[in-house]
Amino acid sequence: MLDQRPAPLAQRSAAESGADGRYHALRQLGSRAHQLRAATRAADHFVALGVEEDRNTGSWLMSCAVGLAQDIASDIDGIARSLRETPTDAAFTQAVQSLRIRAHQLHAAARAADHFLDQDNHEDHDTGSWLIACARGLAEKLAAEIDDGASSLKRPVDDSVIDAHDAALVRRVAQATTPVRGVA
Predict the structure, then answer these.
(1) Could you give the CA distance from residue 97 to residue 101 in angstroms, rounded to a whole number?
(2) 55-85: buried (b, 16+ CB within 10 Å) or exposed (e) per residue?
(3) Whole-structure pTM value
(4) Model confidence over 64-122: pLDDT tens digits?
(5) Which residue range is the domain that position 154 belongs to?
(6) What is the CATH number of the domain that holds 93?
């Protein structure tokens, strides 16, 4: 079967190097970051169920998450390398450096979780479960940060115009309007 993953972002043509190219690169990274977030969320769910078959499913999902995290980290590394070769705006470069750090943290947490889940004792499984939760939190942050970065590239010049597809704005509105439990 052919590998149908997209070519690494670092190998894309120079024609995609402008703001539109950066936007599309971040959107592609964002879609994979959301897949990674879903994999870590599902792994966390299955490992917590406690049945051996479900723990195996959770462990397999973490193995998948390790591969996704490695791909995302590699692509962000490629973007960071390409930014050193061509002058771009400092804010975008700083955002990519922040994403790079988060992606490598996530990859490390996913690898560690996968390692501990593969061990044969309860203490290591507990450690793996905790590391899944860490990876899940990092995956959620990475996906949100990538969405925010892509949205900032497409944000209209006129700040009085509200873009209903701005992921950062939608997330802030949802957080601001979500009722807090126990508060009337």
Answers:
(1) 6
(2) bebbbbbbbbbbebbbbbbebbbbbeebbee
(3) 0.74
(4) 999 999 999 999 999 888 888 877 778 888 889 999 999 999 999 999 999 999 988 88
(5) 19-177
(6) 1.20.120
